[in-house]
């Protein structure tokens, strides 16, 4: 059985701008079957470059140091 993802907008991060060297916390709460895979990208579609070893994922919250 497949269930489309349900993304809870009130628990999801909106647009943000940060400078190099700053921290950002991105939150996306989603449910579905199979479990949705959350991918974050920059506004221009490019991947978010994360400094090696400074990535922590827990309970749908992604902590980045860029």
Q: Specify the overall morphology.
A: elongated
Give the % helix.
under 10%
CATH architecture: Sandwich
Oligomer: single chain
Mean of residue pLDDT values: 71
Q: Strand count, sense and closure of the main sheet?
A: 3 strands, antiparallel
CA-CA gap between termini: 39 Å
Question: Unreliable runs, pLDDT <50, ≥5 residues?
Answer: none
Count of the domains: 1
Structural class computed from helices and strand pairing: mainly beta
Folded structure, characterized:
Helices cover 0% and strands 33% of the residues. The termini are far apart. It has one domain (3-65): Immunoglobulins (Immunoglobulin-like). Strand 4 and strand 5 form a beta hairpin. The model has no long low-confidence stretch (mean pLDDT 71). The chain has strands at 3-7, 23-27, 30-33, 56-58, 61-65. It is mainly β. Strands 2-5-4 form a three-stranded antiparallel sheet, with no helix packed on it. A two-stranded antiparallel ribbon has the order 1-3. One of its GO terms (cellular component) is neuron projection.
């Amino acid at each position: 059985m497949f269930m489309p993802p349900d993304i809870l907008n009130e628990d999801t991060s909106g647009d943000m701008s940060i400078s190099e060297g700053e921290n950002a916390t991105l939150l996306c709460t989603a449910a579905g079957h199979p479990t949705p895979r959350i991918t974050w990208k920059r506004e221009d579609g490019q991947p978010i470059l994360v400094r090696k070893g400074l990535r922590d994922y827990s309970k749908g919250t992604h902590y980045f140091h860029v």
